[in-house]
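G., before I forget:
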Amino acid sequence: MTARRHSRQRELIKSFLETRKDHPTADTVYRNVRNQNPRISLGTVYRNLTLLAEEGEIRRLNVGDGVDRFDGDVSPHYHFVCQKCGQVLDLQIEGMEEIDYAASENFHGRIAGHVTYFYGLCGSCADQTEDPS
Amino acid sequence: MTARRHSRQRELIKSFLETRKDHPTADTVYRNVRNQNPRISLGTVYRNLTLLAEEGEIRRLNVGDGVDRFDGDVSPHYHFVCQKCGQVLDLQIEGMEEIDYAASENFHGRIAGHVTYFYGLCGSCADQTEDPS
DNA sequence: ATAATTAATAATAATGATTCCTATTTTTAT
DNA sequence: ATAAAAATAGGAATCATTATTATTAATTAT
């Protein structure tokens, strides 16, 4: 029971996310997906994003700005948030598995994983801000 | 100009936070601080928590559950969120400075820092869940 | 000390993201 | 094709947080 059914809307949402590398918010997904289906509702977008994230088909990101973002790329990687322009970029980092072990050292309990995002200035914002000495 | 003035309410909020190690939400701060000052308003609590966090006197935490938490301890440390009981615990980890360098390796731009929290089962929840084999 | 400033507050309205509700529409199994 | 129930559309509701504004209180000048 509780079998999951196919839906046009969910497929549309998922394939839209796969075309984007910029981690859009639910509202951005909604506004874009309406080009293909003008009658889709915002609630449907939220429900399906949550469903897809729960099933591990997409990732939900929270970079602390009060809005959830979604990532169609579920391969292991990290994120960077530009403090100036606000864009969210992908980041590959080596050897991050170890930090769960490092955290376990002084901790009684079971550490299942971690959430990390980096912040600073992205390439173009850093160039603009460059100290002209 | 724009000199900051002293206020009873801000002092009350800050000293309350210093007594707590459990990273309370704004609403929890509000409900507790009302014992000392029943006329304090929720807006005042929010405004002062934001102000104190901006000045670095307290820390604002976001563990992805849609509510901001506040920490009176501004010394460098990390946080752990129990997936079962929801409590937020402090965590000391060695050698975490390196991860900003590791992240910079494959990144064009300036990395200023990172935000990390760990999740899993806290000590007592892990004990309860223990496999009784 | 007293009066003049103006930051801070209290109380409440407003906002914005997200979730909930329900009658209707789609999927899927028979 | 029909029935059962998952999913949707549209809109109302929720909840954390921010904004507004008249009033109060902390600081500064007199």
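Residues 76-133 of chain B form a domain with the Dna Ligase; domain 1 fold (CATH 3.30.1490.190). Chain B touches chain A through 37 residues (CB under 8 Å).

More on Monday.
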